[in-house]
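Re: that backbone. Tokens:
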């Protein structure tokens, strides 16, 4: 693993911030690294506020969207809320349905079947809308490239409003309104919202239109925070404000659909819990059964209504875990059999692999072979799959270069989905390998970890940790601070822990003679060299450790590098 230092912040900026805020220098450095360089920006950072949200009408077509929804309410039209089957999509549908149900009697929620329809707008969805006498479809977290299907719906007399955050294609769909900050002609000040974030901006605009207070939308922010965390969008700007209050809502008044999954949580809920506890379970519905189960869970108004759905989703999640572990093992074997260990890319395929877990499998393969990865399975008459990238490499751009061998694709810098004809598989493999080989840098081919600062153990204190805790919620562009301390040695108490004895419980001392403890998961193989009194550098974050009722600070160790390996 490469350790990459962040730029050292300017001393003048650090000193000025340290003085104006009255915080330790270490905190001032961390803030300047996050472009927080004044009292005002620090106040905005540490004191999130709903009043800091941008005017939703700054978004292109928002006025048109509100007018069309108002028309639907006035005429009591039947509308369909259409969303993707992942966390972002299902939370978006749940949010808009929960909001509009007080104004409309006839609302149909629609999530496409992952296996028979695939991602995005489908003919089946539009045909269902026609059959149900729907006159307006509001699409969330999808639709920005659905030019053909919007035209098809229009011919059937059905209007479309699209709320998406993905990169548009060459032409926008001819919808009544297209809400997407990534439109080239949209001047909205923040373009890193997730799909559910766009949905929230829509209900924020409607709330203003109806003359209702913004604060009344707080109960919906748990859905927005969950989507922001799951979609791994930057934790800055509006996303930070929305997540802050969403976490607050989840801690104090979790909706019935979340209560089952949070009942055993013994600590204060964090973004990590959304990513690792809530999101996989919501995703499991769409991966293993149907995404509408997730919508039903998230729109349940009582615990009695939510519990049976939550239990079934928990079962699906357990099934998902065993399925992705099995497929990962099969994919690793395939790479070896194909003698593809040393390629610039991974592309694996099996017709029987479960479509719902190929994205997870792609991420697991990158842990073994660190390179852009595609996992494919059969989906009807075509192949469908998920693409995952490595740090710094834009896999979406690479797919653009493979367009000739693909039926369709869409996604982000680090994750995408695609379909292709079976006979195009080898052509795609070659094109993808060539594209990646030509554009990836040597640095992007090695796992890396950026760190904030080099420090001594003496600089760590409960006060520092308390202030760092106030820097949450953490996420992309505001990650949990990572530190390096150099020239450490075992102080005598380092040992193996864990069921399989593959984790390290560290007791180490730095060059100032300060002793600190830490935990290093999966680092057990380093024990002998540490006990041999070799000097080492340690890369870590800070966390609280509770043991026998006593709370103390410890290092959560990400990596250890021995000094002798650096000089040899």
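Recovered sequence:
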């Amino acid at each position: 693993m490469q350790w990459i230092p962040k730029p050292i912040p300017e001393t003048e900026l650090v000193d000025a911030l340290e003085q104006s805020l009255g915080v330790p220098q270490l905190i001032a450095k961390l803030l300047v690294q996050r472009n927080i360089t004044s009292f005002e920006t620090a106040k905005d950072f540490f004191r999130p506020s709903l009043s800091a949200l941008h005017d939703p009408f700054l978004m292109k077509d928002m006025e048109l969207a509100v007018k069309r929804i108002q028309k639907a309410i006035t005429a009591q039209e039947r509308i369909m809320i259409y969303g993707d089957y992942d966390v972002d999509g299902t939370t978006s549908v749940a949010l808009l349905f929960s909001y509009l149900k007080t104004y409309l009697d006839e609302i149909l929620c629609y999530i496409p079947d992952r296996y028979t329809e695939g991602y995005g707008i489908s003919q089946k969805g539009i045909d269902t809308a026609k059959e149900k006498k729907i006159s307006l479809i509001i699409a969330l977290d999808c639709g920005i490239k659905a030019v053909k299907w919007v035209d098809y719906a229009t011919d059937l007399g059905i209007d479309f409003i699209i709320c998406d955050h993905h990169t548009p294609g060459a032409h926008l769909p001819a919808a009544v309104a297209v809400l997407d900050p990534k439109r080239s002609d949209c001047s909205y000040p923040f373009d890193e919202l997730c799909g559910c974030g766009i949905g929230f901006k829509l209900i924020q605009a409607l709330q203003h239109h109806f003359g209702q207070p913004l604060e009344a939308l707080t109960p919906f922010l748990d859905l927005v925070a969950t989507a922001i965390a799951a979609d791994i969008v930057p934790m800055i700007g509006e996303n930070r404000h929305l997540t802050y209050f969403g976490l607050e809502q989840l801690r104090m008044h979790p909706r019935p659909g979340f209560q089952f999954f949070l009942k055993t949580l013994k600590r204060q809920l964090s973004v990590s819990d959304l990513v690792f506890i809530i999101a996989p379970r919501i995703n499991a519905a769409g991966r293993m059964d149907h995404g509408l189960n997730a919508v039903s869970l998230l729109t349940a108004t009582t615990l009695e209504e939510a519990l049976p759905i939550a239990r079934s989703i928990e079962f699906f999640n357990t099934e998902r875990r065993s399925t992705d572990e099995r497929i990962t093992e099969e994919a690793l074997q395939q790479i070896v059999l194909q003698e593809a260990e040393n390629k610039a890319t991974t592309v694996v395929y099996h017709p029987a692999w479960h479509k719902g877990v190929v994205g997870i499998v792609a991420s697991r393969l990158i842990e073994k072979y660190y390179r852009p990865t595609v996992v494919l399975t059969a989906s009807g008459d075509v192949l469908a799959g998920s693409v995952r990238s490595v740090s710094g490499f834009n896999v979406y751009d690479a797919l653009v270069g493979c367009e000739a061998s693909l039926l369709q694709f869409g996604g982000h810098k680090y994750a995408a989905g695609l379909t292709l004809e079976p006979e195009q598989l080898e052509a795609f493999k070659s094109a993808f390998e060539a594209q990646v080989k030509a554009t990836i840098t040597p640095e992007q081919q090695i796992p890396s970890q950026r760190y904030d600062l080099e420090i001594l153990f003496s600089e760590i204190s409960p006060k520092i940790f308390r202030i760092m805790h106030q820097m949450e919620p953490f996420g992309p562009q505001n990650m949990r601070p990572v530190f390096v301390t150099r020239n450490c040695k075992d102080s005598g108490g380092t040992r193996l822990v864990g069921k399989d004895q593959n984790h390290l419980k560290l007791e180490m001392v730095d060059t100032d003679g300060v002793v600190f403890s830490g935990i290093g998961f999966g680092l057990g193989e380093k024990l002998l060299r540490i006990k041999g009194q070799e000097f080492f550098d340690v890369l870590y974050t800070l966390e609280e450790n509770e043991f026998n009722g006593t709370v103390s600070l410890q290092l959560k160790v990400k990596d250890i590098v021995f000094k002798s390996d650096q000089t040899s």
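The domain at 449-567 is CATH 2.40.50.460 (OB fold (Dihydrolipoamide Acetyltransferase, E2P)). The first helix runs from residue 11 to 21.
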